[in-house]
Design goal:
heterodimer; A: mainly beta; Folate-binding fold; four-stranded antiparallel sheet; two-stranded antiparallel ribbon; 38% strand; globular; B: 418 residues; FAD/NAD(P)-binding domain; D-Amino Acid Oxidase, Chain A, domain 2; 2 domains; eight-stranded mixed sheet
Chain lengths: 87, 418
């Protein structure tokens, strides 16, 4: 199980969190149709590190951005959702 | 191919089991094939078998990165059923079930297919309405489905908690008597052996590293055992479909998640059916060895690690124990995880791709094992004819952008249906 450091609550077990979607797949009201299809369906699905949107559902209920490797489960960052993502 | 029979068993018993041949060859890759199938799981091997048997295309290679049946074919809970509500799904899975019924004879290999019945429990009035709708849809399509009353359940499954105080009170069930289980390794081995006997090269320890294209058309693959040419290439690597499709610059409507399964220590027969639940997602059956086989929800986040999260083990065990309180006395023997292609409507993708000569079979979510023969049969048809069969035409890659999704649970674009 992952240990995710919630920006509000500190390190907590993955059981308290829910994965929402890749950060790049957040849909805005002004998407073009091809972008919308990419975000809803044909996502990148990386085997390696990427930014994701998680929610501390059974904790503070806050949203957070997590930089996580889908192969070795390493988490290199967990940021508040309104903080800018380092490039 | 050396045929297996009661007589050959007897002969083996008398000569110290020295008369057996190896079940399939270990060929070196040729320089060119008519069709290359990437992925030596049940689906890929079945595809090769039906290509050779039904379509006469025998210059075929199945390339497997690891060993035959070492992926999801050997990691599932072996349940076979066709109790879906939507026509596209129950037509495909019923076709599959009919192939299962003749598979051991067809392959001359005992896949231990046991039609012990597959049953969905209902826990509420609304559950029962949904089950009735599902059963009606199945019966209208000529598929067996029958309601089980509480009295029938009491008689059939005395260890099920049918009391008013149950954690998940049970009010009835929908049974598919022709559903059941099969020995999953035997399915891979049986198809590998039968395909090999028809001339198919089953090549293990051969990882595909790239897909070659000239002028937009597929010409072959790069592998750890060198380049191999092919007129047509079929991807069949559930769990890693996105990674292989990316070699041809395709992005798939698939997210890779984990599904876990668990077995208890073996005990005497106590559950002689496959038991699933409409509202909670646990499923329980008993293997021929006596182990209680359990599964539940996937791990619900993208990962390729093949390592399950422990809280899921606890959750599934809790659900199973709530259904069968006697299970609390058993020790868990093993747990494991497989990487599954979660598609965005819960249904598979079998068909053509925008790349000429490249075909895709994937997106099976956590329901691929029962489809093994139909998946292979329809994929072989598609690879042979260059276009899908009526059974797999609805499962096209472009259905997500056109809106023609096959969404059995009506959950919308989420990669974790149930």
């Amino acid at each position: 199980m992952l240990l995710i450091a919630c920006p509000n609550c500190g390190p907590r077990a993955q059981a308290e969190f829910t994965f929402e979607r890749p950060l790049a797949s957040i849909v805005t009201p002004t998407e073009t149709l091809p972008d919308l299809i990419h975000k809803l369906f044909t996502r990148e699905n990386p085997r390696g590190p990427s930014w994701e949107l998680w929610r501390h559902t059974y904790g503070c209920a806050g949203w957070l951005k997590v930089h996580r490797d889908t192969h070795n489960h390493q988490i290199s960052a967990a940021l508040p959702v309104d903080m800018e993502t380092p490039s | 191919m050396q045929r297996y029979s009661a007589l050959s068993l007897l002969r083996g018993g008398l000569n110290g089991q020295k008369s057996w041949q190896r079940a399939w060859r270990d060929p070196a890759p040729k320089s060119h094939y008519d069709v290359i199938i990437i992925g030596g799981g049940g689906h890929g091997l079945a595809t090769a078998y039906y290509l050779a048997k039904v379509h006469g295309i025998r210059n075929v290679a199945v390339l497997e990165r690891g060993w035959i049946g070492g992926g999801n074919t050997g990691r599932n809970t072996t349940i076979v059923r066709s109790n879906y509500r939507q026509p596209a799904l129950h037509n495909l899975f019923e076709f599959s079930l009919k192939l299962w019924e003749g598979m051991s004879d067809d392959l001359n290999y005992n896949v231990m297919f046991s039609q012990r019945g597959a049953m969905f429990l209902g826990h509420s009035d609304s559950d029962m309405i949904r089950l009735a709708e599902r059963g009606d849809a199945m019966r209208a399509a000529g598929i067996d489905a029958e309601f089980m009353t509480m009295d029938q359940l009491r008689k059939k499954l005395p260890l099920l908690d049918l009391s008013d105080k149950a954690r998940y009170p049970i009010v009835g069930a929908l049974n598919q008597p022709r559903g059941g289980t099969a020995r999953h390794d035997a399915v891979a081995w049986g198809y590998a052996r039968a395909a090999d006997a028809l001339g198919v090269d089953v090549i293990q320890n051969c990882e595909v590293l790239g897909i070659d294209r000239v002028g937009g058309k597929v010409t072959g693959v790069q592998t750890t055992r060198g380049p191999i040419g092919a007129d047509r290439v079929g991807i069949c690597v559930a769990g890693n479909s996105g990674q292989v499709a990316a070699m041809a610059d395709l992005r798939l409507p698939i997210e890779s998640h984990l599904l876990q399964a668990f077995v208890s220590e073996p005990v005497k027969p106590m559950v002689d059916m496959v038991i699933m639940s409409q509202s909670i997602h646990a499923y329980v059956s008993q293997s021929d060895k006596g182990e209680i086989v359990m599964g539940g929800d996937p791990d619900l986040y993208p990962t390729y690690s093949q390592r399950g999260r422990p809280d899921r083990i606890e959750g599934v065990a809790g659900q199973c124990i709530a259904l069968f309180p006697a299970l609390s006395r058993l020790r868990m023997l093993r747990s494991w995880a497989g990487t599954t292609d979660m598609s965005f409507d819960g249904s598979p993708i079998i068909g053509t791709t925008p790349v000429e000569g490249l075909y895709l079979n994937g997106g099976w979510c956590y329901g691929g094992f029962k489809a093994t023969p139909a998946s292979g049969w329809t994929y072989a048809y598609t690879l042979a004819k260059g276009e899908p069969h009526a059974l797999n035409a609805p499962f096209s890659l472009d259905r997500f952008e056109t809106g023609a999704t096959i969404d059995e649970t009506g959950a919308g674009p989420m990669p974790h249906h149930r």
